[in-house]
Design a protein that fits this description.
About 23% of the residues have low confidence. The longest helix has 61 residues. Helix 2 runs antiparallel to helix 5 and helix 10 runs antiparallel to helix 11. With 580 residues, the chain is an alpha+beta fold. It folds into 4 domains: 90 residues, Phosphorylase Kinase, domain 1, CATH 3.30.200.20; 173 residues, Transferase(Phosphotransferase) domain 1 (Transferase(Phosphotransferase), domain 1), CATH 1.10.510; 132 residues, no CATH class; 61 residues, no CATH class. It has 14 helices and 16 strands. It has a 6-stranded antiparallel β-sheet with strand order 1-2-3-4-6-5, with helices on one face. It has a 3-stranded antiparallel β-sheet with strand order 7-8-9. It has a 3-stranded antiparallel β-sheet with strand order 13-12-16, with no helix packed on it. InterPro entries: Kinase-like_dom_sf, Prot_kinase_dom. It holds the Pfam family Pkinase. It catalyses: L-seryl-[protein] + ATP = O-phospho-L-seryl-[protein] + ADP + H(+); L-threonyl-[protein] + ATP = O-phospho-L-threonyl-[protein] + ADP + H(+). One of its GO terms (molecular function) is protein serine/threonine kinase activity.
Length: 580
Amino acid sequence: MTIEVGKTLAGHYQIIKSLSSGGFGETYIAEDTHRPGNPQCVLKHLKPANSSQQGLAIARRLFNSEAQVLEKLGEHSQIPRLFAYFEENQEFYLVQEFIEGHPLSAELPLGQRWSETQVKTMLEDVLSILEFVHNQGVIHRDIKPDNIMRRESDHKLVLIDFGAIKEVGNQGIPQTGQVSGTVAIGTPGYMPTEQGRGKPRPNSDLYALGMIAIQALTGMLPNQLREDNDTGEISWQDQAEVSPALTVVLSQMIRYHFKDRYKTATEVLTALQSLGSGGTYQPTEVANPTYQPTAVANSQTYQPSHETANQGPMAAPTPPVSKPSLPSEPSLPAQPTSPEAKGQNKTPMLIGAMILTLLVFGGGGFLYVQAENAQQQEIAAERQREAQEQRQREAQEQRQREAQEREQNQLGEQKLAQAKKEAEESGNLQAAIALAKEVPVDSDSYQNAQTAINKWEEVWQTYQNIFAQVEAAYNAGRWQEVENVARQLPQNPYWNPKVDPMYYEAKAQLKAIQAAEATKYFCVCNAPGNIRYDPSVLPSTNSPTNISGSSCSGSLTNYGARGERGDDWHFTGTWSCDNQ
């Protein structure tokens, strides 16, 4: 349900405008009425798909975890800060910094190409952000032009709408047959195959950024580019005028298999810096692409507004479209001379010699046709052999890649299993964290390892604080506090040797104190009725005090402080005092 304009959430976030609405929730602009000047902020409303108690519990845990990640990422100047996150009526809300500017998609109209220098500048700007993000163990998972904002104040690019938070809305939806616990989130055209299978890696973000760069260079949307049916690689080079050096970098960023791409944003930055200023190549800007897109709707040219904010992809805007015109047919490049071509060039000479022989000896046209057919069959057979060898090489390379991937996955599973065993059996979370950090970044277990690390680091800090409190209480002789606080630490091989000596010493001290307090002397009248007096309730005086019962004779006198020692009590007659 859409939140009405004017409604206030969490007591001080007043909705002033709806930005977008989609399957994951809605995005609004709100004013913080508790801050001076009522500054604007972006409020994201996330609705879990499953409202069962189990589904909500999972969504709540994931929401809190991802919100803490966003808060940490907000330390970067080109990522919106997270101001707050909260839950109301079993629905979740994020409050983020309002970025005044426009999305990068507004700078990428169809048919218009960027210069190579512009593309390199954009890549370096976004890669520096991704370098920080990936170093935090986070994958964005939804890199696209709508999620990159051009900030109006300084014209820098800002990365918004991290895809992991959208898992909150997917919790409780069965993921049949899905090995990984990660939800497949992303945008077609910018999302590589492994991400579509729910197994994103850091260089999945590099693939998406590479596609944006190619979109800028070609003036075409990713789904307008051709794809090689055999390899799955994107064919884009013939649609752009770009230097060979940058072509190599972009092609490696968008390789079909993640094993063939750059591993980190740092590697891409290093490759771009090695290009220098781009050489002497000057790309030519053209008005329209050579590709005519299908099913294109009419639209108006996008005019960025100051109200555009980091609203995220909940309702992706329609890209600006101008109907391209087809340019004249480009001239074909000269074909290189290959061994096969050389063989074909000899064919006319061979045919000529055969014709001359037939003319001399009267063989007719049959032998000529037969020889030509034989030549064509030989060429076709050679091509088939070459194609088969190529397929075999590719199949072998694919098997090697798959074997390496299996090896990395097995290593990741083993390291994560060892880490969990260390955490659960020994309780040494520091050792468990160290093992989890050894999980390879391209392993299927990497994301689960990062989640475990974050959880263990938080628990470890909590236990360290508790242990410090126990030590402080022990050193100060606060035995009851030692006993109470020590019980909050788990009993395992790691903590027992550290805590047990203090815990049992405290129990012994408390027992001694309790025993001393329990030592009391009672006086009893050994006459009918057995009147029993607790000295602690008798008056304390230095003068004799006679106490008698109905059947008691004699006297009971206290010459000392009451209840201290039995020999301070003097008794006669039927009275006697004893340590009971």
